[in-house]
Amino acid sequence: MTQKISICKTQNPKSRPDQKNLGFGQHFSDHMFIMDYSTEKGWHDPRIVPYGPLSMDPSTMVLHYGQAIFEGLKAYKSKDGKIYLFRPEMNMKRINNSNDRMSIPPIDVEFAVEALKALVSTDRDWIPTEPGTSLYIRPFIIATDPFLGVRASNTYKFMIILSPSGAYYPTGINPVKILIENEYVRAVRGGTGFAKTPANYAASLKAQDIAHEKGYVQVLWLDGVERKYIEEVGSMNVFFKIGDEVVTPSLDGSILPGITRDSCIQLLKKWGIKVTERKITVQELFDAHADGRLTEAFGTGTAAVISPIGELNWDGRVIEVNGGRIGEVSAKLYDAITGIQNGTVRDEFNWITEVK
Ligand SMILES: *Cc1c(COP(=O)(O)O)cnc(C)c1O
User: Fold this and answer.
1) Do 138 and 275 fall into the same domain?
2) The CATH number of the domain where 31 resides is what?
3) Which of 237, 248, 300, 341 is the best mutation target for the ligand 1 pocket, counting ligand atoms within 8 Å of the beta carbon and taking the most?
4) Whose CA is closest to atom 12 on ligand 1?
5) Engineering a disulfide at 288: which of 29, 93, 293, 297 sits with its beta carbon 3.0 to 4.6 angstroms away?
6) DSSP 302
């Protein structure tokens, strides 16, 4: 697809937010990318336009039936002012996996990466430069037919918006307390767990609220059938170091195939650390802890990169991991991935794409 992206620049550029107080997902840049889909024309009219509200018919299908997908990745500015994206083609390929599950027509992966680069380049001045900050990128697709009735929409919008974001760990990495969720489940095999689709997140809120009330930062999800096997932590993939092996749940349809997860597996293999994708029961975890073999636990995802787990509560049985401190492997993965992302560590895997 060699469509030309039209660019309409804003007449009213916004003032830049304070880089020391960005938070996450609160500020948005001057422009956004939009492309439309119709059955007759396919994906068409790619354009970069001033950031602003959408006008929608109240019957717009996405508002009622949730036919939508999204992605999340980041752009980083290196010390010498270069702009880097981390494995953007993986996000755009994952859009098509999510699209397929949600009956949304596929996008052209290469073109979507070009569109992303064009938008980031247009708003390059919005990429923060303070240590740990980045430009969070949110591509998403929504069903736009004005129609009530459960079927796939015939029209869609693919959009990309940009949000300058603060350091995830402004005061250093602190391991978090996690509640193992026994009642609610996030996803089941055959469902939509492997797709990045809004309904999965709406369905996770209740358990998250309860965990927060109990003083926990996130929940650890168990499988939807037996509530025995570990799946994910909040909206991150999860890893454990048991003995000299690093383990992570295998992808079986209910788990989101994270790009950070994949990057961690590749790095661990390169470092000669044994890493296994397999089923892990909570019981195994607690047994390994009792034997002193559970030495690290951490979540992985674009926002935090690595989020160490310091405490796990399973029905009132509480265990502390690594004395509540970040583990050696977790720290090494964090340094390697963030180093590659901001251009201070050599990119042996070709994960970095420069935006000119
Ligand atoms: C996005 C997401 C992840 C992490 O994926 P990354 O590509 O590493 O950011 C993990 N689990 C869920 C449920 C997610 O939505």
Assistant:
1) no
2) 3.30.470.10
3) 237
4) 235
5) 293
6) T
Q: Are residues 161 and 205 in the same domain?
A: no
Establish if 146 belongs to a structural domain. yes
- Tokens 């964090």 correspond to 334
Are residues 273 and 183 located together in one domain of the fold? yes
d(C-alpha 172, C-alpha 69), whole Å: 32
Domain that holds residue 322: 176-342
| Per-residue pLDDT band at 3 (split at 50, 70, 90) | confident
- Residue 209 DSSP one-character state: H
Residue position matching structure tokens 């995830």: 168
Mutate to test the pocket of ligand 1, among 256, 265, 302, 306 (most ligand atoms within 8 A of CB): 256
**Does the Cβ of 30 fall within 6 Å of ligand 1?**
no
- The H or E element that residue 109 is part of is helix 109-122
Check pocket membership of 175 for ligand 1, CB cut-off 6 A. no
> Measured between alpha carbons, how far is residue 305 from residues 263, 273, 311, 353 in Å?
10, 19, 19, 18
Nearest residue CA, atom 10 of ligand 1? 236
Domain assignment present for residue 1? The answer is no
Looking at the structure of the chain, the number of domains it has is 2
Is ligand 1 within 6 A of the CB of residue 296?
A: no
pLDDT at 73 over 90: yes
pLDDT reported for residue 1: 52
- Tell me the per-residue pLDDT of 247-275, one tens digit each, with 9 for 90 and over: 999 999 999 999 999 999 999 999 999 99
Q: Pick the last residue of a domain from 129, 145, 165.
A: 165
Classified as helix, coil or strand, 103 is: coil
Asked whether residue 354 is assigned to any structural domain, the reply reads: no
Q: Is the CB of 204 under 6 A from ligand 1?
A: no
Please tell me whether residues 182 and 325 are part of one structural domain: yes
